[in-house]
Amino acid sequence: MKVYSNALYHLKLAPVASLAGSEVAAAPTAGQAFFDARQSASTIEKKFVGDSSSTSYTDQLIRFCLHLFDNNKEYLVDDHLEKMERFNTADENSRGHTRAGKLKANKRTQLRKYIRDSIKNIKPARGGASHDCPIKIDGDGAINYEIIRDYIETKASLVVVDRDNALAYMKEIGKPNPTITPEMEAPNGKVRIQIYQQTSTASAIRSAIGWMYNLARVTACEEMKSDLSKLINGLKRNESAAKAFLGLKITTGKEPLTQEAFEFLAKKLFYSADKKDVFAHLFFVLDWCLMKRAENVDGAKINHISFKDDALVFEFAKSKGDQTGDPHGPWHVYANPLKPWMCPVLSLARYLFCYPERMLTDMPLFEGTNQYARYSTRFMQLIRQPDVVKDLKDMVVGFEPEDLGTHSSRKGVATMVASGCTVGPPIVSLCIRAGWSLGGVKDKYLFRENAGDMHVGRCASCHDPDTKEYAISPVYFDFTHLEEAAAVSMKKEIREYLESHIPNHEAISSSTWKVVNMCFAAICNAYDHLKENLHEKCPLRSAAVFRDIPDTILALATTKYPWDKTADTPKATGIPPHVFQLAKMEALEKKMDLLQEGILDGMRKEMSERGFASTQYNTSEITDVIQSAFSKMMEKFDSIGVSNNTSSQQDVGFIMTDESEGFLDGTVVGGDHDDAATGEERQLAQKQNRMKAASSVEKRTLTLGFHHGKLNPLPANWKPTSMTCLQLIQNWFISNKRDNIPALCNLDSRMVEHLKMNKYRNSMKSFMSIVEKFAREKECWNEKPSLWSIKSVNSMWKAIEPEFKLAYCKTKRKGELTWKTAYNNMSKADAFGNIRNKARSVA
Fold first, then answer.
1. What is the pLDDT of residue 64?
2. Which residue from 185, 350, 636, 671 puts its CA 20 to 30 A from 616's CA?
3. Could you tell me if 504 and 798 are in contact, meaning their C-beta atoms sit under 8 angstroms apart?
4. Contact between residue 430 and residue 414 where contact means Cβ atoms under 8 Å apart
5. Confidence label for 693 from pLDDT (cuts 50, 70 and 90)
6. Residue pair 775/796 in contact by the 8 Å Cβ criterion
7. What percentage of residues in the chain have a pLDDT greater than 90?
8. Model confidence over 40-69: pLDDT tens digits?
């Protein structure tokens, strides 16, 4: 835990107790500065519900207060009513007009803000102190059941239904003389009618009012509570009747996502060109595989993620069913190497290597304040794309865009796991992982066990429990086929490669380093697939770790099954007994195949040695005859004096081509005036030239190609990818040998002329000039481009990163910020000296 003396922090000089699980070993001494991160006790006592629930209840109460303000002002406290009137008048006076001259709708912004603040400031009524609630909830004139009932009655929905169904329903509910007027007509013979909103709306209103009473520590009238319960039960019956008569959707809420739809959407995000889909894909896959609410995924921290045996292990501080912070986890997530586009380990690898800052200890997995809203927005955009809408409709279980939401993943994976196999995971493990209450005595006597959760985790990763492939291991590095010294050398090479390509690697914890190592193995195993199928603009292509992975490391990444496992294979977990039996049968079949092949090979060898079934010669006799014939043929050639210099070569001169260099050396060989000595000297010189050219070619790291009418070191299909600030700096100095892409600093205008990106290239040069100024001040700049390595680039970035980001990364997601956005901030900033001084003062 670091101690700050910066003026930006509010410091208190007081001793604090040691916190369990923190890095503080003892309380600070007297006079030592520290940051007090505790909330006030009055704030803590209001947290008997989750923050998201508090926000939802507050919004419900704001709408209820507005209803009372417009219709029943006598139920509002006088002091609050007076202020509400004043803020409502201010809202009316500030309405203004639109560009078209129309009066803007009155959203009553100031009035809403006042009501929100009033609800947040409700105090417990104790010791004679007032609760200060804006609504009269006790004493004379307090709200009653009738007022709440009238408010619930205003909640209506307009639906378009069949004409005959509408008439039948109105007769069922006792509407006298139901008639359909022309104003009610809708296209295709439909009519518009109004019904109550879903019963969940009335339940939410009741819960919000109950929360308000709890905040104020006022006991609600039992008669009012009883009447509200009866009203909601009646609304449930009314809702069921409306669905039956009107043909409305039976289920409430969003539809569960099927495995087919999950795979389809995962593919769309995995192979997308948009850089933000690296984040969206990981969030989507974890939301599915963890079976948690999206808020849990949003709040994940890197130091709460580890790799144990063959599974990623997640821990969370709380869940929907356990808000008090009791031990919650671990929850096991399994790789799916057979389907890269939906493998959680590969998705995590892609995200971490694109944004390596997320690996550092204590960092949140997703940078920013509300990544759930970011993910939700992207998810809704995806399912509304015209091509996606069409494909979703054509699936076995078709979907409309309005059928799906972020909650569909959680509902879908639970449905898939529960119904996928007759020997599926225990229902207790399924409910506990999803955070669902078992109810009553079951919550007290049925607890989570790792084996059940492991089985749930494997099923959630879309492994088929009816096949032997269900037992596949995650991708890992296998060294068992190497000698001991070679294995130690390769382990060292892998670690050194990662350390040199990951900035600030020394700040990564040991548990996270295991995650990074397994993620790197997943990248290596899928390397060819990623190179061939990822979109050309995917930011992973520019990540330092992904470029130029040595073939020796790529060859070590593998997966195994129980029948071919080695000493390095991670221990298999979460595998039910019937899958182990399938694995044993597979191992037995392989042994039988090997035995059969061995018997046949032995028979062939024995038959060959004995000359079995030969009509004239056995094997040794055939060999002797061939050798004798060959000797006679060579003696014949020697007797007629065949030489290497043919008449055609002596009569006709020709041009020698140096294939190693790919150009003509223009040397004429042969002719009437060449004597033997001159020919031998020339041949010797040509041989030396070829050896020299071959040696120079071997030293080359990049090759030239001919495309778009000129020689160019860039590949013909190369296009710049989306890069973060660090990725641009790395690619600016370091070439990509495997893809034959030179360092970007070596690109000139002619090389990128066909891409029409000279302006883009100039922006990169300007960006790097600012980086150079920062680096020179820190005395970590290399004058010669040839002196830069990936390690020295990372060291330079480590030195300038804090001040550079403070100056130009004006966002809460600084790690994901592209260099282009930072460059735009540079263009808007003051002169370098001013912005530099400002950054230094803040740092």
1. 95
2. 636
3. yes
4. yes
5. low
6. yes
7. 29
8. 777 787 778 877 788 889 999 999 999 999
Residue 36 phi/psi, 5-degree rounding, is -85, 105
Contact 514, 471 (CB under 8 A): no
Are 507 and 361 within 8 A, CB to CB?
yes
- Which residues have C-beta within 8 Å of that of residue 153, sequence separation ≥ 6? none
Say if residues 320 and 243 touch (Cβ distance below 8 Å).
no
Side chain identity, residue 616: Q
CA distance 610 to 626: 19
CB 47 within 8 A of CB 59: no
Q: Return the structure tokens found at 470.
A: 């269900």
R_g of the chain computed on alpha carbons: 37
* pLDDT class of 831 with cuts at 50, 70, 90: very low
Whether the CB-CB separation of 412 and 256 falls below 8 Å is answered with yes
Q: How many CB atoms lie within 10 A of CB 197?
A: 15
d(CA 739, CA 726): 20
Task: Yes or no: say if 429 and 455 are a contact pair by the CB < 8 Å rule.
Answer: yes
Which of 66-80, 419-433, 580-594 has maximum average pLDDT? 66-80
* Residue 185 phi, psi dihedral angles, 5° rounding: -65, 145
Sign of CA dihedral 585, 591, 595, 601: positive
* Calculated CA dihedral for residues 737, 743, 749, 753, nearest 10 degrees: 40
The answer to whether 210 touches 232, Cβ cutoff 8 Å, is: no
Q: How confident is the model at residue 337 (pLDDT cuts 50, 70, 90)?
A: very high
- pTM given for the model: 0.72
Contacts 24+ apart (CB under 8 A), 767-774: 767/728, 767/819, 767/822, 767/823, 767/826, 768/728, 768/729, 768/732, 770/808, 770/826, 770/832, 771/729, 771/800, 771/804, 773/832, 773/836, 774/800, 774/803, 774/804, 774/836
The answer, yes or no, to whether the previous bond of 330 is cis (omega within 30 of 0) is yes
Does the pLDDT value for residue 399 go beyond 60? yes
Which pLDDT value is given to residue 587?
A: 67
pLDDT value of position 614: 55
Q: Is the pLDDT of residue 666 over 50?
A: no
Higher model confidence: residue 273 or residue 579?
Answer: 273
Length of the chain: 843
Q: Which helix (H) or strand (E) holds 156?
A: strand 156-162
pLDDT at 286: 93
3-state secondary structure of 165: helix
Phi-psi region of 504 (alpha: psi -120 to 50; beta: other; left: phi over 0): left
